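Cast an eye over this sequence plus tokens and walk me through the fold:

***
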Amino acid sequence: VQLQASGGGLVQSGGSLRLSCVASGFTFDNYAIGWFRQVPGKEREAVSCIESYNNDTNYADSVEGRFTIPRDNAKNTAWLQMNSLKPEDTAVYFCAAKDGSIWGEFDHWGQGTLVTVSS
């Protein structure tokens, strides 16, 4: 199982970024995908998840209404579309996958991609 996250960068407050997570080595359709973020010295935070079977989504309160998590199973890819970015969104973002539902521990992780939001 491999997950490749990309798309991070420096953006001004109020701007947008789209992160990509490209998967390989497993049947993407069967896996829930999650985006997580971590600031050095703080615990990792779940940002958003999308189910494998019905595309139901879940968002942290802090990003609800600003972020979306589309996926395209034909492309083995999920994205994190981040709009109206705030300085507090600055973190290293990781994508992760788990077989089945979004509930429970994600056990396959990609490398992180750094998002920096300037004020």
